Amino acid sequence: MSSILIAGGSGLVGTALASHLKKEGHDVAVLSRSVSPKANIKTFSWDPSSQLMDEAACLETEVIINLAGASVSGKLWTKKYKQELIDSRLQSTSTLLKYMPKMPKLKKFISASAIGYYPNGGNTMDESSAQGQGFLAKLCSDWEAEALKAPVDTAIVRIGIVLSDKGGFLEAMSKPIKLGAGAVLGSGKQMISWIDIRDLTQLFDRLCQNGTGIFNGVSGQFTTNKTMTKTIAKQLKRPVWLPPVPAFALKLIFGDFSDELLADHKVISVRGAEIGWQANHTDLSVVLSDLL
Predict the structure, then answer these.
(1) What's the domain range around 208?
(2) Burial of 247 (0-12, 13-18, 19+ CB in 10 A)
(3) Which of these, 7, 83, 235, 290, could form a disulfide with 68 (CB 3.0-4.6 Å)?
(4) Which of the residue ranges 34-43, 198-207, 267-276 would you say has the lowest mean pLDDT?
(5) How many helices (H) and strands (E) does the chain have?
(6) Torsion 246-247-253-259 (CA) sign
(7) Can you tell me the mean pLDDT for 214-222?
(8) Cα 144 to the chain's mean position, in Å?
(9) d(CA 78, CA 270)
(10) Which DSSP category does 122 fall into?
């Protein structure tokens, strides 16, 4: 078992991952800007914007998992928030890099990224596919380049749309549907490459033990926005009666963030098999039945 330090451990993925790793017998700690004495997990303070971290976190750490970064879907993509998306990722990574020489037992660094790295539309993408265009693709590329400066074995997980019963994408999709205001976005034909959070935590767990380079954190199954919307509505026993929201309307309302709402990615994981990992939750109807 390993001593694992998680940056970004309070988010949707980080919380689930910390819980999973603890159940598997790993010694887990998280980095947080605020340390509560009531926390049920070992917590060390850090401030990436100042490149500072409690050096006590360095002593036993064998694996670092970096999930830290402002939410891509948290706010409208104003110029100011775009800079926050960049800074929160690069500063957290560079802070970890700064302290790695003070970690005598460190063997592995695992960094999150996203499938927004890949081009929209077209062919099915795997880990060898080229980088796409636009803000999100460059954000992912710059984040990965910073992570690959680590002086230890490094793995990067390009994460798809995470399905969880604790919030995130499913909560955002379900709320308007429950209120009778759900609608397909754009043409509804854009592909969503998703992953059940239970499979994603298994992938990170496996990477703590083995594997370097790029890995796609996806189920290998993708569905259209229309099918996802209708399937969620069916599970919630609610109709979707509103007409689709046109792409131009989304652009007017959400600005550049509409690019994320209309993202079209068909992504599979090829390299997962190299480390003995595959997604076990691949039937969307069954997954939604479990999570909703």
Answers:
(1) 3-166+193-219+265-280
(2) middle
(3) 7
(4) 34-43
(5) 9, 11
(6) positive
(7) 97
(8) 13
(9) 35
(10) S
**Number of structural domains found in the chain:** 1
Q: How far apart are CA 230 and CA 263, in angstroms?
A: 18
* Residue 231 forms part of a structural domain: no
Helices (H), 30-70: none
Q: Where are the alpha helices (DSSP H) in 110-223?
A: 135-147, 169-178, 197-209
Structural domain includes residue 186: no
Residue 34 has pLDDT above 90, yes or no: no
Using DSSP bridges, classify how beta strands 63-66 and 3-7 pair: parallel, antiparallel or unpaired.
Answer: parallel
Residue ranges of alpha helices (H) inside 43-179 are 79-99, 135-147, 169-178
The span from the CA of 56 to the CA of 191, in Å, is: 44
Residues across the chain? 292
Q: How far apart are CA 103 and CA 62, in angstroms?
A: 8
Q: What is the dihedral of CA 64, 69, 72, 76, to 10 degrees?
A: 180
Which CATH number does the domain housing residue 122 bear? Answer: 3.40.50.720
pLDDT computed for residue 240 by the predictor: 95
Instruction: Please report whether residue 173 resides in a domain.
Output: no
Does residue 37 register a pLDDT over 70? Answer: no
Note whether 271 and 218 are within 8 A (CB): no
Inside any domain, residue 251: no
